[in-house]
From TrEMBL:
The keyword Transmembrane applies. The keyword Cell membrane applies. The lineage of its organism: Bacteria, Bacillati, Actinomycetota, Actinomycetes, Micrococcales. InterPro entries: ABC2_TM (IPR013525), ABC2_TM_bact-type (IPR047817), ABC_2_transport (IPR000412), Nod_factor_ABC_transporter (IPR051784). Its main location: membrane. It is found in: Cell membrane; Membrane. This is Transport permease protein.
Amino acid sequence: MSATTPVLSRPTSTLPSTAGTGFLRHTAVLTLRQLRAAVRVPAFVVMNLVQPLIWLLLFGQLFKSVVEIPGFSGGADYLEFLTPGIVVMMALFGSAWAGTSFIEDMNRGVMDRLLTSPTHRGALMVASLVYQAVLTFVQTLIVLGVAWLLGARFDGGIAGVLVLLAAAMLLTASFSALSNAAALLARDQNVLIGLSQLITIPLMFLSSALMDTSLSADWVADVARFNPFEWAVVAGREALLSADPDWASVWSHLGFLAVFALVLGWLATRAFRTYQRSA
């Protein structure tokens, strides 16, 4: 080879890239990558279930007499009232830690290799959201099964379960995107932990997840109307507990969640540019 002969380097990507289908193929490959990791180390999935199940078991018994308080509008069984709130709480807490996988990839140099390859940026984000939504789907079914074993019965049937699953997965996608964006911008696990605590706890208590807001201060109910966490609780509870739910309310709250998830997903994907400029 002469000294003037150009040397062409091979692409660094190991992912297939085809016009028109690259995004979907990259999303599928990256999602499977995370699912395989979860199967190899299932401790995270189990740990994310422990706290919600404890709350379901303890709170369901500790506050079961709440239904007798005048003004309580959540039905005659507190366990049934509580179950959708616990499902959505589990979705929120789990998604708040989604950015951890991004930080691990940054620390190992995997993120930089992916970003310098033809890998679709949107696929990197969407794969993370899909993975978290799959975990939420599985964990929700487990929580509902435990609640049923404890005696909870849901008049909404299969349709109600599907709505609750949709609400929980949309909330998961929203806050997973927010967590991923925080990871890309801060690149620090401690910052991510602090942010998750700052957001999740207030959102949970400024909602009807654990208590009917009609029994709370008026300002709590007013704030809850603009709380995405409350949107998921209201949609899931209305569909799950009622044989004849207010579908207008259900669909409107699911619509708010869908728009919220799309906006956060778009903003989080743009955070890749900031990460690359600062790396």
